[in-house]
Amino acid sequence: MEKILKDERNIDKRPILIVDDEPEILVAVDTSLRMAGLSNILTLSDAREVIRMMEHQIPRLVLLDLNMPHINGTRLLQIIRKTWPRIPVIILTGAIDVETAVHCMKIGALDYVVKPVEEARLLAAVSQALDGEILFGDDKKGIPGEGSPRVKHPEAFSHIITRDRKMHSLFQYVESIAPSSQPVLVYGETGVGKELFGRSIHTLSRRKGNLIVVNVAGLDDNVFSDTLFGHVLGAFTGAEKARAGLIEQAAAGTLFLDEIGDLALTSQVKLLRLIQEGEYLPLGSDRTRKSDARILASTNLDLWNLEKKGGFRKDLIYRLSTHTLTLPPLRDRISDLPLLLDRFACQAALELDKPIPDIPKSLIEQMQAYPFKGNIRELKSMVHDAVSRYKKGPFTADLFKGLIPDAGLTSKDHGSSTDLPTLKDASRELVEKALKKTMGNQSAAARILGISQQALSKRIQKLKAGEE
Q: What is the rounded CA–CA span in Å between residue 243 and residue 195?
């Protein structure tokens, strides 16, 4: 294994992950790799911890046992291949499971090693996997999607699930602005993951302090000042001791202000001073204090529109938006839906101690037509609730509240149960509701209605002409 010992790529900070429920196998494989010169190794005996671990730290290689309780290796391989297709996986298998191991190679495993593990065979497979990193190139390590823009530090974005090219362009931008000390303003609808990007910016900044997050919505000026800047002894009735604010907790780190568009005007003045001068006053104090915390802010509101209405300071907008990110809603990155569905279903199943459901293509097609006004946060809640009702078999749309559109053929809409609409009216209403649900996307509307796009197009033409 001289090759690995001398390989400069061995300085890669990402670990090699070994997953096996047999402690003696974990020890044997770990020892063999360490003796070969590979020291950055993590071991897991519980398959349920794999996805959680990989969400926080992307490994460079996974050695995966096939037969484990809770989640078998084949299912885990499928999940890894969907979300992290660039990570090589080596299967660890018993002699009687070789046929299954070969099947795993067909669905994406790089190689397999039969247990009890022969050291030479193991090291040869690992060497081949690490050599393969050259083929992927530094821009694709652990990052899903073909032809994605170059990302130098994919581990900083491992908590963001995406293959979308626009999202990877944002990753590039985040990498370029992360070392800056200037503020960053993150725009995006509710639930798109603004705080997740804040975490990535902080991680990449290499700042020594902590990331402190505070939601400023609904805070009046006194509460805002006390929360951020703290107070001195006797600052107000009940202030029996001094209190450090969050800005002090964020020293040498990052302060993330969520829902900045809801900040009161009086508080905006204090924030402006903090950004411009790096100074603040704790409540009850006449001595200014210095802060070196970097300021990040997020909002789902149009700050310039607020400024026109007198609700936000123009100078503060300029200060906050030295660097600006606008995150796309889920409906604009619909190709990520299968990844998100699979990850959230897996997370919910592990938390609720349920079997991990397979996601049929038909469910994905139905969900692609759903508007997701609450974006990824709404999707995650929907999946968690659906998994709570799931027992076995296919993961179907009827488990998701509000996913299947109401046909509207109720007494509330059409009078009594005997006062039914005509077929023409019912047909028109179904078509209109399906098109409204899909924002005019005829392909998606046709899937909801269970007909072909061509049939839907002809029906729309007939309805317009009054023939039906």
A: 26
CATH fit for domain 2-140, picks 3.40.47.10, 3.30.70.260, 3.30.565.10, 3.40.50.2300: 3.40.50.2300
Q: For residues 146 and 407, give the distance between their C-alpha atoms in angstroms, rounded to a whole number.
A: 40
Q: How far apart are CA 271 and CA 244, in angstroms?
A: 17
Q: How would you label 313-328 residue by residue, b for 16+ Cβ within 10 Å and e otherwise?
A: beebbebbbebebebb
Report the C-alpha gap between 313 and 258 in whole angstroms.
17
Query: Tokens for 156?
Result: 């900083």
For the chain, 468 residues long, give each residue's pLDDT as a single digit of tens. 555 544 444 445 789 999 999 999 999 999 999 999 998 999 999 988 888 888 778 899 999 998 888 888 888 888 888 777 788 999 998 877 778 878 888 888 899 999 989 999 999 999 988 886 544 444 344 444 444 557 888 888 888 988 888 999 999 999 999 999 999 999 999 999 999 999 999 999 999 999 999 999 888 998 999 999 988 887 788 877 888 889 999 999 999 999 999 999 999 999 999 999 999 988 888 889 999 999 999 999 999 999 999 999 999 999 999 999 999 999 999 989 988 998 898 888 888 888 888 888 889 988 988 999 999 999 999 999 999 999 888 898 989 987 866 544 443 444 444 455 666 677 778 888 877 777 777 777 777 777 777 777 777 777 766 655
CATH number of the domain located at residue range(s) 411-465 in this protein: 1.10.10
Closest by CA position to 246, among listed 296, 316, 298:
296
Per-domain residue ranges of the chain? 2-140, 154-326, 331-399, 411-465
Q: Identify whether the C-beta of residue 354 lies closer than 8 Å to the C-beta of residue 387.
A: yes
- If you count DSSP H runs as helices and E runs as strands, how many of each does the chain have, helices first? 21, 14
Alpha-carbon distance of 243 to 241, in angstroms, equals: 6
To the question of pTM greater than 0.90 for the whole model, the response is: no
- Statement: 154-326 belongs to CATH 3.40.50.300: yes
